Amino acid sequence: MKLNLKIWRQKDAGSKGKMMDYTIDGIDGDMSFLEMMDVLNEDLINKGEEPIEFDHDCREGICGSCSLQINGEPHGPDRLVTTCQLHMRKFSDGDTIVIEPFRAKAFPVIKDLIVDRSAFDRIQQAGGYISINTSGNTQDANSIPIEKENADDAFYAAACIGCGACVAACKNASAMLFTSAKVSQYALLPQGQVEATERVQNMVRQMDLEGFGNCTNTGACEVECPKGISLENIARMNREYLAANIKG
After folding, report:
1. What is the pLDDT of residue 134?
2. What is the CATH classification number for the domain harbouring 95?
3. Please, what sign has the CA dihedral across residues 70, 72, 78, 79?
């Protein structure tokens, strides 16, 4: 395939960026989107030009670092996949593909297509953990009876990889789906009950401090999430937050 690429180039967070046009040929449909970017960068390097910076790590749909806005959609036109799992057969010969970084105030651009998503780390650090005294007579977690429905829902919530697609898809750049998934995976389990009140209050507070917008129930976050995280988690977090505030 021969493709026309419009790619965002930006030196750093303080510089003004712009779209640059590139043409690439010989792209096979079985290539992943990131492999296509590798081919483009190899061509740029051979020409003595600066390659395009984009984030990636495992390329197995697990780490979530390969976050790209492709033709206006986080991770591109496929569903339940990350950018590294998107294959070029989703495009046709002669297509024009617009590639941008995720757009959100809380995700400042580092360079080109790489954004700083450390805001998610700070939300997690605010309460996304369980403090347990591991000395003495501790109870094996696997010996605690848990209803299967709750266990399943907790696992579904824990599947969130923190890629930021929910933020990029939301017109308000809300992080509610991410935060609610991290709250839910503990709220559904007995191990998470001890710190439940402080957890939801601290994580929501940090989410607001990071500058993310509010949720208006558009639902784009669930549609674009590569792991299919459900909006039900947002409803659960709202209930947890209300109960925590009532408790004081």
Report:
1. 66
2. 3.10.20.30
3. positive
Q: For each successive 10 residues of the chain (248 residues), what is the average pLDDT? A: 98 95 97 98 98 96 95 97 97 98 96 98 95 72 87 96 98 98 96 94 98 96 97 97 91
Tell me the sheet residues that pair with 164. Answer: none
CA separation for the pair 74, 233 (Å, rounded): 20
209 shares a domain with 186: yes
Note whether 107 and 178 are within 8 A (CB). no
Whether residues 242 and 124 share a domain: the answer is yes
What single-letter DSSP state applies at residue 174? B
157 and 70 share one domain: no
Backbone angles phi, psi at 15, to 5 degrees: -100, 155
Q: How does 180-210 read in b/e, with b if 16+ C-beta sit within 10 Å?
A: bbbbbbbbbbeebeebbbebbbbbbebbeeb
